Amino acid sequence: MTTPAKQAARSRRHYVTAGLASMMGTTIEWYDFFLYGTAAALVFNKIFFPAIDPISGTLAAFATYSVGFFARPLGGVVFGHFGDKVGRKSMLLITLFMMGIPTILIGLIPSYDSIGYWAAVLLVLMRFLQGVAVGGEWGGAILMAVEHAPEGKKGFFGSLPQTGVAPGLILSSLAMGAVAALPEADMLSWGWRIPFLASVVLLLVGWFIRAKVAESPDFERMRAQGDKVEVPALVVLRRYPREVLIVVGGRLAEVTWFYTVVTFSLAYATGTLGIPRATMLDATVWGATLALFTMPLCGVLGDRIGFKWIFMAGAAGILLFAPMFFSMLQTRDPATVTTAVAVAVGLVYAALYGPQGGLFSAQFPPEVRYSGISLAVQVSGAIGGGLAPLVATSLLAYGGGDPRYIVWYLSALGLVAIASAFFMHRPTRFALPAGARLEARP
């Protein structure tokens, strides 16, 4: 006979395992995704697009980078559909392999000098598969953490997959920083490939961890009660268009801010301002290290005072800090540059990203939740993150090298995020009634 104490211990083990596995899984997948962004800013224009001038080559490299973002909504729809019908866990195992294998293959693509434009074609194809995988990954990782979590701790557990972004960014920055220290010729010929090929180790670790996680209790309840719908994405668009729009509006600022700071600024600082690559990569590591602690803190604060208020504070941070960020970069002083990136990633971004798991998942009912959050988040990711480096580069050129138009663009999105978050539902809107949660099955 199972005693209440044993049942509580088993339940606690399930939600702790789910939270940690979600965090470690997203660490691995974001390592792969960020690695591409760093390489696009530093080397891909020389490896795959050397036949065109440097500025056009950088834009071309960022364009292939954007392909991954535009593929995300497709991944969100496909994996959201099957995640709501088949289960959260199986989708997370599939997306892990869809992310890891293309990353390894990118490290094996011959250069332009070897096979011409076919190198760029293969690069775009691998990036597309990465985007589809990330589009399905985020929603499943969030739901496995939030739907396993006990009441009153959904913000904290929802922040754990978000926190996985920080170690993923740290690992990718350290990996590229290590090979960037090589002589230029070695870096461009073979050094850049090592971080991509090393992803095979992370892929195997991630599979081992995720295979041990139990299915979501909310999905088990739906399966037991027959609450599943035939085409979840259509139900989302028909019944919850308001929720989709406000999540898109809320997240645009966060994703644009992040990829402007982490990807565009890397190219801007090294190419325009002449800041050493090592300085920017080190600054990114410091910012991500700070976020490793501040993201869970923002999740806990979300549980205490409300997810939307923490999120709105982060959006206000964009309005206050965007002008200061670029001014601090322009000093070219390593300590000031590091402080700028640390605050941008570890404080402003953490306040936006940390509470998203609890906030966004509360906008949709369980039977369409995977599809709802995946569709809304990945559409905003395609618009904001996919276009962020391209828009920022274009605005910089339009301003004659002055980033003031980039600041205006980020500030406008910050205002949209504040307004969107204000109208989001409370966490209890679609919560399960007392006693409805079933014990998850391994």
Task: Describe the 3D structure.
- The protein has 442 residues and is mostly helical.
- It has one domain (8-422): Growth Hormone, Chain: A (Up-down Bundle).
- The chain is built from 21 helices and no strands.
- Residues 1-10 and 432-442 have low confidence and may be disordered.
Compose a concise summary of this entry.
The chain is mostly helical.
Q: What is the fold's blueprint, element by element?
A:
Elements lengths: L3 H39 L1 H4 L6 H17 L1 H14 L2 H19 L5 H4 L2 H31 L5 H10 L1 H16 L3 H8 L1 H5 L1 H12 L6 H9 L6 H8 L1 H32 L4 H29 L1 H24 L3 H20 L2 H6 L7 H30 L5 H19 L20
Helix pairs in contact: 1-3, 1-5, 1-7, 1-8, 1-9, 1-12, 1-15, 3-7, 3-20, 4-5, 4-7, 4-20, 5-7, 5-12, 7-8, 7-20, 8-16, 9-16, 15-16, 15-17, 15-18, 15-20, 15-21, 16-17, 16-18, 17-18, 17-21
CATH topology: Growth Hormone, Chain: A
- Rounded mean pLDDT score: 80
User: How many domain units?
Assistant: 1
- Name of the level-1 CATH class: Mainly Alpha
Helix residue percentage: over 70%
End-to-end distance, in Å?
19 Å
**If you compute it from the alpha carbons, what radius of gyration comes out, rounded to the nearest whole angstrom?**
21 Å
Uncertain runs are 1-10, 432-442
